[in-house]
Amino acid sequence: xxxxxxxxxxxxxxxxxxxxxxxxxxxxxxxxxxxxxxxxxxxxxxxxxxxxxxxxxxxxxxxxxxxxxxxxxxxxxxxxxxxxxxxxxxxxxxxxxxxxxxxxxxxxxxxxxxxxxxxxxxxxxxxxxxxxxxxxxxxxxxxxxxxxxxxxxxxxxxxxxxxxxxxxxxxxxxxxxxxxxxxxxxxxxxxxxxxxxxxxxxxxxxxxxxxxxxxxxxxxxxxxxxxxxxxxxxxxxxxxxxxxxxxxxxxxxxxxxxxxxxxxxxxxxxxxxxxxxxxxxxxxxxxxxxxxxxxxxxxxxxxxxxxxxxxxxxxxxxxxxxxxxxxxxxxxxxxxxxxxxxxxxxxxxxxxxxxxxxxxxxxxxxxxxxxxxxxxxxxxxxxxxxxxxxxxxxxxxxxxxxxxxxxxxxxxxxxxxxxxxxxxxxxxxxxxxxxxxxxxxxxxxxxxxxxxxxxxxxxxxxxxxxxxxxxxxxxxxxxxxxxxxxxxxxxxxxxxxxxxxxxxxxxxxxxxxxxxxxxxxxxxxxxxxxxxxxxxxxxxxxxxxxxxxxxxxxxxxxxxxxxxxxxxxxxxxxxxxxxxxxxxxxxxxxxxxxxxxxxxxxxxxx
Length: 606
Hints:
six-stranded mixed β-sheet, globular
């Protein structure tokens, strides 16, 4: 029977034993997946969506969980249903990889760093399919071609660390598809990837599904990805299924309040059309929101001219510099007080290096950086320390940028103590006010970072950046690792602080919908250069450079009627930014196509 589900989860309950007693990860969840169908499981961190998939693979036991109730029915290749909840681990080893494939969220941890790509790809084929060495290698090459990896023969001999994030994720997909599984489980497979690579990988998975008839269980918190991929959607909240239905129905007529709130929190590309200035998002169920445009001022705060940063590549016996990585090449822009300039582009385009160069966390090769009348590059160490009061940074990963052994009150107070701004009870009062500003309860001041969720940790990072009352904040992918609803709250918080305190942001991101929401000016970076820069409305509504157009086309839109096919996405591979010592790049030259809207005329390589 064709409509017989491949996998059926019935009343699943999963418990984790902790020292405080059992904790329920999934309470009571039921859904099924049919052949050739993509079912998207959506929800925030901690909703139980990954636990459901790990139960189906019976990997949840390795993470300290146990299946406390329910049935996991799976339709085997040879016919006949098996309840995976009671199958022994020996039989599960035969099913895993062979009949159920899994793509994990983090490709670097899913691949073994000490084996070549070829060895890891052929292992499953030799174990499950009994193929010989030559036969398995031929199939591995075929798989790499299917997932569109350039120069597949060379890649087989390489190790995972020699590939980019997008390439590694393709290898993981190839491994999952190697034995042509009946069911493919994809756990957040594109979260860590750029817009363009994400678009290609989603189109690739969709094509592989159509060609092989595999059923796909796709776990994500990105509603735009759901709109692109899903046939049916299951919405999870705190270990329970709250809504299920066809993708069009979920997007057009959501029933459950949680689903409505989730969809309201998704920034959609094009929402800001016709608006002169950025304004916070309207969120469901949030009282007393300030929704007012943030015009900023015409006064210049930061002026960057001809900024160039290169990293030496060393080699040979004497560890001499043999080449340079041209990370930032001849970048110029200005940022006004109380406004936001966003730098967008793919990984490796130099946007984070540009942000770090401005704060001199990385030393630039040359250029001029003027922050409110101070020449940043001319400062010595003690002057730079004083100048850093005016410029702070919010990093991408709040867990890595906070000290795990310090209480939160001390982390937020540390900059004030370092600069001798306040002491004693005054510090405590100011930290308490900062906690109020970032909407965290004062009772959290005595907590440690591991006791907080990702969104709460990011609020602490913002509070710490505000402690010195800076003029400029560089936000490096500050919201990219957060869930949709938390991301919307943090973005709104940053915009409210901008309106109240007159902050200027250099906002570094690859999420175009968020950038459209927060920016006054947008600069698009490619291979170390700004290829297009101008007011937000002009860059988004009238993109001129070929790369900007390709980037806009790749952005998934949270609307199931506007799906993209693989034909829409024709990206050129990014050339290497490493050049020999004798390479002398041309200076950047621009055409002004509209007032304030500039497009690069120098050859950018795209």
